[in-house]
């Protein structure tokens, strides 16, 4: 049964990649000039938005994983994450990473933990699906301040993006019934440490948990065995390789979207195609529609939750080579987009009443955006400032999750 499902998955992936390759060739042959311009647009997006937002986190994540930080953090968070999300404690690193760096940073970290046999394939797939978020730089700086000229609306989109992502995760974790046998084998249990009696002793109080966390970190560092120079070189190499894969997909989809939309009759249909295909180009196309601001924000939230076919292929490029599936990922993206659309419309009027000066008025947009997308992209100085804020946000989220876990543990012991 598992072999048949694996064969079906490989066949569907082969058909999808073949269809994209054929469509790309047709687009280039049919309109070489627009295809070249679109590829330049995709390159500009990758270089000015994606590259500075993700690469530092990819390098940092691989170095911290080799140093045992997620494993040590997992000792403290394990009881909380297992009870709430049915995921191992190392998810306490994957989730803040995905919330601050954006996709596919969480997929890369989950794949690394899986290759080290710290988590199972099913856990890696669920971690990736749950921690798949757009970066705050994209939502607040590019979409909010750049596309919409309204940073407050960008902050609202970010909050709803996170809230709807958690809602989709809780829905699947409580109602999803996987038909595959995803229980780890005895060998996996020994490697992951689920049967280690010290892990149970670590849960008895916070102080033994801290000592056990340091012990886990040291054990993971010794098992990795690389020197700092070797580790830094490998981290940079792997990070740049992942960024090149992301850039390649963005260029391909920029060409396909540009050429396909030139044959579509209406701008609404073109925006729908762009939003379903690639998130950066899709959100820019949506902001050019003449809609009420609640409806515009809802469509942007839905597009951000779905995140595009391009992001799915980026994640699959990271997970597929190590044997991690993506069926749950697709379903969670659909739920994420649906929740974001509904929550935006539900929360808009209450937020307008509670924060009358922070959000735009409830009225029609009479002047849709018509400027070039490149003019809305951040410069390197703004990107550096956004990266600094994202780094601090990552630290604060980790501290927040640790505080919640320790508080929950003390309350459960009383």
From TrEMBL:
Domain of life of the source: Bacteria
Transmembrane annotation, as ranges: 15-33, 45-70, 90-114, 126-147, 153-172, 251-276, 296-319, 339-359, 389-408
Annotated stretches, region: Disordered: 181-216
Protein keywords: Membrane, Transmembrane, Transmembrane helix
Feature: compositional bias, Polar residues: 193-208
Stated name of the protein: Dipicolinic acid transporter SpoVV
Organism encoding this protein: Paenibacillus motobuensis
Underlying gene: spoVV
């Amino acid at each position: 049964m598992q072999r048949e499902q694996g064969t079906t998955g490989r066949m569907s992936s082969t058909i999808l990649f073949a269809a994209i390759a054929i469509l790309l060739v047709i687009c280039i042959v049919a309109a070489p000039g627009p295809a070249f311009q679109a590829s330049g647009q995709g390159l500009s997006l990758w270089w000015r938005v994606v590259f500075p937002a993700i690469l530092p986190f990819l390098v940092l994540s691989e170095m911290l994983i080799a140093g045992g930080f997620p494993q040590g953090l997992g000792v403290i968070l394990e009881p909380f994450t297992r009870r709430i999300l049915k995921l191992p404690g190392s998810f306490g690193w994957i989730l803040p990473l995905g919330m601050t760096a954006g996709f596919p940073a969480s997929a890369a970290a989950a794949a690394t933990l899986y290759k080290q046999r710290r988590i199972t394939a099913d856990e890696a797939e669920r971690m990736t699906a749950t921690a798949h978020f757009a970066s705050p730089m994209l939502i607040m700086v590019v979409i909010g301040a750049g596309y919409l000229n309204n940073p407050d609306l960008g902050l609202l989109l970010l909050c709803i993006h996170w809230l709807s992502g958690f809602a989709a995760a809780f829905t699947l974790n409580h109602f999803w019934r996987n038909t595959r046998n995803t229980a780890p084998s005895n060998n996996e249990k020994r490697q992951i440490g689920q049967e280690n009696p010290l892990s149970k002793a670590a849960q008895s109080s916070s102080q033994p948990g801290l000592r056990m966390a340091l012990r886990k970190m040291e054990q993971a560092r010794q098992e990795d065995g690389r020197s700092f120079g070797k580790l830094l070189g490998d981290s940079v190499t792997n990070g740049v390789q992942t960024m090149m894969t992301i850039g390649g997909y963005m260029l391909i989809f920029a060409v396909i979207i540009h050429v396909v939309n030139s044959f579509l009759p209406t701008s609404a249909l073109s925006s729908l195609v762009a939003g379903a295909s690639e998130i950066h180009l899709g959100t820019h196309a949506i902001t050019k529609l003449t809609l009420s601001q609640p409806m515009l924000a809802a469509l942007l939230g839905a597009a951000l939750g779905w995140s595009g076919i391009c992001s799915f292929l980026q994640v699959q490029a990271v997970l597929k080579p190590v044997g991690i599936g993506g069926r749950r990922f697709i379903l969670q993206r659909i739920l994420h987009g649906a929740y974001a659309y509904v929550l935006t419309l539900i929360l808009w009027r209450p937020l307008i009443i509670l924060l009358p000066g922070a959000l735009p008025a409830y009225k029609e947009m009479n002047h849709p955006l018509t400027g070039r997308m490149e003019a809305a992209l951040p410069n390197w100085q703004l990107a550096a400032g956004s990266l600094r804020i994202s780094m601090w946000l990552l630290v604060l989220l980790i501290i927040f999750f640790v505080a919640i876990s320790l508080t929950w543990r003390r309350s459960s012991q009383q």
